[in-house]
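Sample pair:
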Amino acid sequence: MKELILEMEDYAQEKNVPIIEKKSIAFIMKYIKEHNIKNVLEIGSAIGYSAILMASAKEDTLVTTIERDETRYMECLKNVKRCGMDKKINVVFQDALDVNLREEVKYDLIFIDAAKGQYTKFFEKYKYFLKPEGAIITDNLKFHGYVGKSSKIESKNLKSLVEKIENYIDFLKNNEEFNTEFYDIGDGLSVSTWKNAK
């Protein structure tokens, strides 16, 4: 397992695939253990790096992960199989905004780490699948140090993306349904929980 994780880190670096920073995934794995998380939904599998580590945090933790890029999806499937996690990780090949989950399925943890510009849409769509005591964790909220400095960015595309992340942070801060804690870990993480657990 350790060897495969190192291989995946090398592959990600070589092919320029964004994977979660080590400090961030360590935080999430600790969160899974401390909060007895058994059912995780991940938006954005990439090559399966974070899904495999989350599923390995506890023996009874199951992960459903969604990926829309076919190359990454195939790589994710391969990695999940290689580390013997195919009974614990369900990989879904679809755009997360198009996926229709069964309404009765609820998750202890929802991890958002896909298209940054769609974070608010992901949050709004998937909050209905979060258990009352569950949490939504979002990654990349500092976005390589650009967040909070969008006015100084010259590239139009980058500026637009950073502004969307800044808007998402405002959306979390002003959300009437959720309390959100922000952590200066890795590339910036947030943990959102229901204000009034139903």
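Helices lie at 2-15, 22-34, 49-57, 70-82, 119-126, 156-173.
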